[in-house]
Amino acid sequence: MNDVYNVAVVNQSSAAQCMETQGPCDNCDQKCLAKYGPSVHTQCGNSQCICIYECGQPAKTCSGGGGMCSQNCPETCCDANCAQKFNGGKGYCQSLGNYNLCQCEYPC
């Protein structure tokens, strides 16, 4: 009696790749390295920094304050302030009562 076996081999060493934009191309390598570690690859397309990394557990995200949003400092200003204040930081404006706060999120 001859037995026939079917065997499937899954190459687990080739994990799926993910991409995330990190704003302007300035210091792209440093931004991606800080967020995803030494195995990250970087690309600069359409003036945007793109991090290419192995998908996995997402990095923990922390929050912080970036000051106030106003006509003089709209969402783009808030985002720039957060990027300067926190490594890998991104910012957005959020209204709380009579205040328009700049909220920052960054990997921690």
TrEMBL record:
InterPro entries: LCR. GO terms for biological process: defense response to fungus; killing of cells of another organism. It comes from the Eukaryota. Keywords: Antimicrobial, Disulfide bond, Fungicide, Plant defense, Secreted, Signal. GO terms for cellular component: extracellular region. Its main location: secreted. It is found in: Secreted. PANTHER family: DEFENSIN-LIKE PROTEIN 181-RELATED, DEFENSIN-LIKE PROTEIN 183. Belongs to the DEFL family. This is Defensin-like protein.
